[in-house]
Design a protein that fits this description.
The protein contains six helices and twelve strands. The chain is of the alpha+beta class and about 250 residues long. A six-stranded mixed sheet has the order 3-4-2-1-12-11, covered by helices on one side. A hairpin with a 6-residue loop joins β6 and β7. The protein is globular. This is Metal-dependent hydrolase, endonuclease/exonuclease/phosphatase family. It comes from Caenispirillum bisanense. Keywords: Endonuclease, Exonuclease, Hydrolase, Nuclease.
């Protein structure tokens, strides 16, 4: 089966005009029409870390449901990260990952029933601004994935803040996963840098990737969303991939 995933840094719902207008974010999400979306910067950064949109507003406007993992009463995300699903996709279990950093950083790991042979494991992350910490944060995510004895089809999505095309945290991720580069996504009005990435396990086939470049997206945030169409393994493929990992000690 195939599904579409997307990653989008919504910049606390503040657009290129400096105005906080979550309805523009909702319009972009409707344009994306993805099955699963990883969001970054859904909450304000300081104080109570209050959300920039309510889950009920989101669902009414777009049909997306928020997978709830916030620990602060006024937040929608975990360190600003959130996962959205739609249709018949159902969350099974999730884990909050604290990432090493000078500034507060975290990632969400959520297992989703997407109707395939196995659940899809989704990691939503927003890595830091300092290069050496980005590498350590990538290592922490890989360690969290390895700590679970189940080897599920996996996609890691987010704003990695990695300016290098292949080095830094991308090199760390590429040791275990497949790093995909949809294209330049930042800054939204004139994208030059591919800060937003979609990373997959080797049993997930990437059919295509893209940067969602529309007039609405250019105004809604300082990042453009990135998308990927993924083909998930059938049961036989999943068992074959698992057997290879076991045989290689991976």
């Amino acid at each position: 089966m195939t599904i579409t995933v997307a990653s989008y840094n919504i910049h606390k719902s503040v657009g290129s005009d400096g105005q906080r207008r979550p309805e523009r974010i909702f319009s972009v999400l409707a344009e994306l029409d993805a099955d699963i979306v990883a969001l970054q910067e859904v909450d304000r950064r300081f104080g109570a870390r209050a959300t920039t949109f309510e889950a009920e507003q989101l669902e009414h406007a777009t049909g997306y449901r928020l997978v709830r993992h916030a620990v602060r009463p006024l937040s929608s995300g975990w360190h600003g990260n959130a996962v959205l699903v739609r249709g018949g996709i159902e969350p099974l279990q999730g884990k909050r990952i604290t990432l090493p950093a000078l500034e507060p950083r975290g990632a969400l790991m959520v297992d989703l029933d997407v109707g395939a042979a196995d659940p899809l494991r989704v990691v939503a992350a927003h890595l830091g601004l300092i290069g050496r910490f980005r590498k350590r944060q990538a290592e922490a995510i890989l360690e969290a994935l390895a700590a679970d004895e189940r080897r599920l089809p996996t996609v890691v999505m987010g704003d990695l803040n990695e300016w290098s095309a292949r080095g830094g945290c991308l090199r760390v991720f590429s040791q275990k996963l497949c790093v995909n580069a949809p294209g330049p996504s930042f800054p939204a009005r004139r994208p030059l840098f591919g800060l937003d990435r979609i990373i997959t396990s080797d049993d997930v086939e990437v059919v295509r990737t893209a940067v969602h470049h529309t007039a609405t997206a250019r105004e809604a945030s300082d990042h453009l969303p990135v998308t990927a169409e993924l083909r998930l393994p059938e049961a036989a493929q999943a068992m074959s991939s698992l057997a290879k990992r076991v045989g290689s000690g991976g």
